[in-house]
Amino acid sequence: MFRHLHSDINAVFENDPAARSRFEVVFTYSGLHAIWAHRIAHKLFRKGWFTFARIVSQFSRFMTGIEIHPGATIGERLFIDHGMGIVIGETCEIGDDVVIYQGVTLGGTGKERGKRHPTIGNNVVIGSGAKVLGSFRVGDNSNIGSNAVVLREVPDNCTVVGNPGRVVRRNGERVGDRLDHKQLPDPVIEMFREMQKEIDGLKSELEKLREPVAGGETRS
Questions:
Q1: What is the pTM of this model?
Q2: Tell me, what CATH number does 139's domain have?
């Protein structure tokens, strides 16, 4: 238990440059309080004391604004920054060294039974307002952009943005535009690209019309 407390505090200093002292972190960081309350609630939940576990989690929700179901599994050194509005579902699994910002939902789609919440890998960063919904895995070392809505599996070492979420970087390289079975293009971006091509074509034709012809006159 004390090992967890120590590593949780260290995670704050590793991820938040505003942290000044251990005293300040222990007494003022609501994300830390929510994690510690969850560790108690999770132990009660695993022992079958479901009502007491929910009481602890609901009290933590009231005090911190962060709702973590007592059934959720959380790894080492989770850092919750400005955690108001975070919701983590019952069957969610979170790996080690994960960073979660305010307004994030790790939830289900409402249609599944059993494992219905996402599994978050190690070293994942989930930006503010992001929604990760469904029973799938977000790979290690991945980044979920702010306000992204992720509805399908994310491979390791990826960056996901948009609604619906799309992979824009994989292993440090931009994902190509070609259609494949794993990565669908964003129709809105494709539409803008086609419009840009048409605009470029019209500009080219206009420049040709303005070119001087024999006699010093321009084409009209």
A1: 0.74
A2: 2.160.10.10
